[in-house]
Amino acid sequence: MQHGYEIVERNVPFKEGEIDIIAEKDGELCFIEVKTRRTQAFGVEESVSPRKLRRLRLAAARWLEGRPWADVRFDVIGVLVAEGMPPQVRHTKGIDRGAR
After folding, report:
1. Is the pLDDT reported for residue 92 higher than 60?
2. What is the pLDDT of residues 16-35, one digit of tens each?
3. What is the mean pLDDT of the chain?
4. Taking a C-beta distance cutoff of 8 angstroms, is the pair 63, 14 a contact?
5. Out of 3.40.50.970, 3.30.450.20, 3.30.750.24, 3.40.1350.10, which CATH number does the structure's domain 6-97 have?
6. Among 41, 45, 62, 78, which residue carries the largest CB count within 10 Å?
7. What are phi and psi of 91, to 5 degrees?
8. What are the CB-based long-range contacts (under 8 Å, 24+) for 61-69?
9. How many CA atoms lie within 13 Å of 60's alpha carbon, on the beta-carbon side?
10. What would you report as the CA-atom Rg of the chain, rounded to the nearest whole angstrom?
11. Where are the domains of the chain?
12. Which residues, other chains included, contact 45 with Cβ-Cβ below 8 Å and sequence gap of 6+?
């Protein structure tokens, strides 16, 4: 990743589901779901259902056991791969508290 993020772990499996990326930036720990799309019909925020976010939160809680992180957020990175166009990447921060 770029923009000052440090990758902590990738593809971390739990019974609740896999965490695609765990990264840190400026003391905030980010649990990141990566979604690839071939169409712009739905945005990346819509691709993470409330159920998926609950499972991501549960997996994050397991990962955080015994780790002292106070500031945590959940993000989505959407990659649009449309035929005949270069890939477009969109990083939506804080899907758990109203996307930014």
Report:
1. yes
2. 889 999 999 999 999 999 99
3. 87
4. yes
5. 3.40.1350.10
6. 78
7. -105, 115
8. 62/14, 62/16, 63/9, 63/12, 63/14, 63/19, 63/22, 63/31, 64/29, 69/29
9. 24
10. 14
11. 6-97
12. 76, 92, 95, 99
Residue type, 38: R
Q: Which tokens in the block code for residue 97? A: 């508290």
* Amino acid, single-letter form, for residue 69: W
Distance of CA 48 to the CA centre of its chain: 9
What number is the average pLDDT over the span 61-86?
Answer: 90
Residue type, 26: D
